[in-house]
Amino acid sequence: MTDKIRKTLADSAAARWLALIIVSVTMMFGYFFTDVMSPLEPLLTKTIEQGGLGWSSAEYGFFSGSYGFFNVFLLLLFFGGIILDRFGIRFTGVLSTVLMFGGALIKWYAVTYEFEGALFGYGMQVIWACLGFAIYGVGCEIAGITVSKVIVKWFTGHELALAMGLQVALARIGTAAALAAALPFATKFGGVGASVGLGAALLCAGMISFIVYCVMDLRQDKSVAASQTEPEDGFRFADLNILFCNKGFWLITLLCLMFYAGVFPFLKFATKLMVVKYGVDPELAGLVPAMLPFGTIFLTPLFGYVYDRIGKGATLMIIGSMLLTIVHVVFALPINSWVVAIVVMVILGVAFGLVPSAMWPSVPKIIPMKLLGTAYAVIFYIQNIGLSMVPILIGGVNEANTDTQGVTDYTLSMSIFAVFGLIAILLSVLLRAEDRRKGYGLEKANLSE
Fold first, then answer.
1. How far is CA 7 from the centre of its chain?
2. Rounded to the nearest 5 degrees, what angle is found at the Cα of 214, between the Cα atoms of 213 and 217?
3. Which burial class, exposed, middle or buried, applies to 53 when counting CB atoms under 10 A from its CB (0-12, 13-18, 19+)?
4. Strand partners, 104
5. What angle do CA 131, 125, 95 make, to 5 degrees?
6. Could you tell me the pTM of the whole model?
7. What is the per-residue pLDDT across 80-114, written as a single tens digit (0 to 9) for each?
8. CA end-to-end span of the chain, whole Å?
9. Which of 107, 94, 110 is closest to 34 using CA atoms?
């Protein structure tokens, strides 16, 4: 029996790493598109006469938060998790990539053409851009949980944390490329629409990439059936009780909310922060926050390797949360040296490598495989509340603290991010305590051999 089980496709190192690379490319292009507008805030907020789109800081904050509107208010991400567990990886993955590409096209149309009128106090161009970004957000988040389940499917008992770390690293390449190249690309090739159009083209390539993966996934399922491995139990609504009554699951969910609320929304405003507070040249300002994803490209797989071999997952989450808090406290202080900004951004990169490398591989230790899609969906759903609401909050705070000369005081907004870090520390400490009581194995190594 053992010999037959080991004949599954996932037991081939070459096959499982190839599968990882293919789905990671899809997410890398997705992360590029997610952040392609972040360094373009200076262009967006310029007047039309100055070559910009004339958006206000509040409109930019509303747009940034629109990514998660449908996921949060219509529960589409939650239903996406149920679809994933009931209908499988291939159907859900193709559906999500189509939504990503379709939403990207709407967003590109919005920022390329002029619109008249307003709705809810926001210009129609902003509304259309938000609609496209919200549709894209549904697809991207469902793709994210799908890829997470793909990795668990292929790497359980193998290099699970390392594989997740490498997937995150490739995704961060997409983020870094967007932060570093979007503004120069837009400046050279005709404005905001050029960079958004580039992102849409990459999403089309990512959709094709996932279709290629589907062929491998079908072969993996056939190899599992041939090995007589017991099939995965199907989803039942009654099983949701396993999620909702699991304290460890809720601790890791809330930790995800607080930690990512202190990172991704911060990146939406980081480029302008570098320009206004630290005096970095606007053409180079995107490179400073780009250091964050570049750092995690190397650190997340490294910390994942440590988790696979040594364990200490809960401890890694505590350390990362502490570093996140320190970073935002420094950003809130009246220190205007660009050197300090760079050093602090490097530290944030370490934090951003520590927590995800330990957090995502810890979920399968708490939740069974048959509910993993729904579990990741709930986590991503709660995370999207932060991704939607925090940019709106920070955008409003920044506008309220901008003087008549257009200079923004970032003390309050950075202090808010620091509070998120403090809460993350508390949650990670409670998670480690719960692990000791329940024996989830978060402090143990992942490799079964």
1. 34
2. 90
3. buried
4. none
5. 25
6. 0.80
7. 999 998 899 999 999 999 999 999 999 999 988 88
8. 18
9. 107
